[in-house]
Amino acid sequence: MEHIKTVETRNLCESAKNGGCGECQTSCQSACKTSCGIANQKCENENK
Amino acid sequence: MIHQFKLNGYNIVLDVCSGSVHVVDDVTYDLIEGFETSGKDELIDKLASNYKDIDRDELTEIYESVEGLKEQGKLFTEDTFEPKATVLKAKTNGVVKALCLHIAHTCNLNCEYCFASQGKYHGDRAVMSFEVGKRALDFLIENSGSRRNLEVDFFGGEPLMNFDVVKQLVAYARSVEKEKGKNFRFTLTTNGVLIDDDVIEFANKEMSNVVLSLDGRKEIHDHYRVDYNGKGSWEKIVPKFQKLVNAREGKNYYMRGTFTHRNPDFLEDIKTMLDLGFTELSMEPVVCGESDPARLTEEDKEIVMKQYEDLAKLMIEKDREGKPFTFYHYMLDLKGGPCIYKRISGCGAGTEYMAVTPWGDLYPCHQFVGDEKFLLGNIFDGVKNDNIREEFFKCNVYTREECKNCWARLYCSGGCFANAYHATGSVNGIYEYGCDLFRKRMECALMLAIDREFNQDGNSAQ
Could you give the ipTM of this predicted complex? Predict the structure, then answer.
């Protein structure tokens, strides 16, 4: 029996290496306008 | 730090700082829970007495797998990001990449719950002239440094009450973007009353996104979203929204509703939106003062939490039927998603994002417009209020003690400044009610993402 299934995810520690280009959308611009969530945003870094 | 929870048959373990997500069985769930507080033998003894069908060798194997994940940086990862919290903002210091243009401080609806006080933002009615709008776009271009993608939201009030200026501004932006090396992405937020064929054609050609205000059920929508004669707007706007969305041919849009004390059971409103043929949905808790009857109560919270869970289950059900839909807050790209800098920098209000009033004043975001304490400057002379700018610049996920201990901090990046300010009097505070809802949304979003990963290979509505 499989005890642990690990889902493929972006490694946040690794994302520090080429991250921070600032090209992604501003957090609340697209739909909510009254709360803050960044998890649902796309990464727009062309060199990640 | 890890966060573990059980939802919809899944035992989920999130390693907060690496972003790793694991789905485990019950024994492993309990083992991980005790991993940092108990010694190996003690923990295995305890589990052996609770799980009689699993022998000690197997328990030892599970223990070693968990140890292995820790060594690989996929469990119990330390938070080493704090020194990076100011890097992104420092790197892009002074760069503005998004403006919310308050194209009209007036509205053809008179919604009592409006955070912008019926579009007037506690001031006089006003519309933005082409000259002010053009200067705002130039201000954005001049202050955007090397950033290529620039975002402009036509907001209000009701922006279609000043539609000619919207069209002129888009035409102006398109005429200069190539030569300036920029790409404008426009969004239009509208209540729908003035949508006609001209608006539809224009919006579908020029707007990367449209946000259409609809609260769901007719009786819910028509309670607040009324005209100045008190007549509900649902009948009038729904066919217009349907026509616009049908013509959109896959381009982004959101049906964006607000739920209040009248409808904490907002899943019914989501279902109404689905019945009307809409699939890209956003439903937000109302933002209002303490004495407002629309305000969500503590009793409502329990209902709302349940709605979020049921919504995620409905999405799974619809996935299985081959009729997936999107809920804005459940869009979670586990394989992609924002980098760590973005996740710890805060929302960008007051630094990379600002709101522009019809007469050209700059505020940290649309929710601060009208509160003179937060006036940053204007599009003609630039940002002059360094104290306020500095306050927003310094704000990040590590400036709030509560966030340091919150597992969801890398998903909200510290929360909404305006909500924090209205709840506590400081942009460095936290709006606890909102945090509780946010954490629930993230648990549901994670569960949904896992279900899609395991069962449907990333099904999504678009």
Answer: 0.92
